[in-house]
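Records of this kind hold a single protein each, on a pair of labelled lines. With that in mind, the following record should read easily:
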Amino acid sequence: MTKALQVGRVILMAAIAAGMCTTPGRAQGPSPDELKRKLDAYLHYMFAFGPNVQLTFGDFKETGVPSLLQTTVTVTIGPNKEDAVMWVSKDGKFLMRGEMLDMSRDGFAENRGKLDLKDAPSTGNKAATVTVVEFADFECPVCRQLHEQLRSLMPKYPQARLVFKDFPLEQIHPWARTGALAGRCAYQQDPQAFWKMYDKLYDNQDLISASNAWDKMVDYAAQAGLKTDTFKSCMTSPEAAAAVDASIANGKLMEVMSTPTLFVNGRRLIGDEPQQLEQMIQYELQHTNSKP
């Protein structure tokens, strides 16, 4: 586990050391700059961060909870960065990391609002009461496992629809972006042909490599009934690249860190978890009109 992830997983840190408490008799807590310096010193101490670790703190925001402020800590180690939301008491005595929930609001409405489903491939009921959004990578082995599960699971729920979003992990999967472009170009020619390409890429994942990916994509396009000349032109077009990039950007906005990541009416599910996915779908079908 990286030091940045260790910071990201802190649940509760209390009694931030005697030097971090307010001065006896002082009427108000530390200033924002003083509070940032105290947080910086404490986190370096807690995680034994060396001088190569840089911590940057965002502005402190009111949370609606008396005496509790929110900030975003950016941990930078060389070229790697990671953000973590933290809460700190105004007197500089307590620090919390976790998730604070407002029970007066729909806990998944924010996720649904951030998901950009315009011009994204979808299959199933257009008037669905349950929408499953899949962020995936065509070269990802776990995504292939999920694909097999979805093949048998989704037909059981005609009230649901599946929406696909590209999130190729190019650093570890050399032909993933080529696969994403192929899916996008299939969709642009014929929205239904996307799902033929989707099946072909996962079914033949072991046969595709960085060296043969282009030829394989063209072959699968022909098998899907697409015009191959149009498909080839699309594969190198800025429009297709921009569409894939927009999907990746939406995934980052949704804090997608790995594939597959799904959202079931806004509920996040990471990995190939068919039982949990089905449980979420069933719950949403039963409770769509009775949310707190």
